[in-house]
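Whiteboard transcription, Tuesday session. T.W. wrote the structure tokens on the left side:
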């Protein structure tokens, strides 16, 4: 089949030639692969302890935030100043022991107004904030009232 001469040549060829590893393919770098150089910013100095004030995160809204965060409460109804808030859970309407003054009602309306970017207009103010909708009757003479309903 093979003669001795060709077998000897094949052996010599295999012994003399080293097996080389294939070289990896070098890709050209795109100019966007350069490192991004960001300017260094200096942080303002930390406030001194006498400069720190404790400000409630939600202002007057903190009076009803526990009702807003409760997923079972679908409706929060305020019939006016110094009257207990009513909440709707399912098909029941239950009065609470939370009351709001006229200023606190206006603060809640301002909270919704500032977060939604809508102006408070008389006689009706409507706004949506995340999964909440507020419908309010705004009146300086009879007092303002509102209903906050959960959209989900």
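and on the right, the sequence the group agreed on:
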């Amino acid at each position: 089949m093979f003669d001795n001469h060709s077998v000897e040549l094949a052996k010599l060829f295999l012994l003399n030639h080293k097996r080389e590893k294939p070289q990896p393919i070098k890709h050209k770098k795109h100019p966007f692969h350069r490192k991004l150089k960001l300017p260094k910013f200096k942080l303002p100095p930390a406030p001194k302890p006498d400069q720190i004030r404790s400000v409630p995160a939600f202002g007057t809204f903190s009076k009803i935030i526990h009702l807003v965060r409760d997923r079972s409460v679908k409706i929060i109804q305020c019939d006016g100043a110094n009257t207990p808030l009513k909440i709707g859970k399912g098909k029941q309407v239950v009065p609470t022991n939370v009351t709001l003054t006229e200023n606190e009602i206006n603060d809640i309306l301002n909270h919704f107004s500032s977060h939604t970017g809508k102006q408070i207009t008389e006689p009706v103010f409507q706004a949506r904030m995340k999964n909440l909708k507020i419908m309010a009757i705004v009146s300086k003479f009879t007092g303002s009232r509102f209903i906050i309903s959960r959209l989900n």
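Someone added at the bottom: Confidence is low (pLDDT under 50) at residues 52-57.
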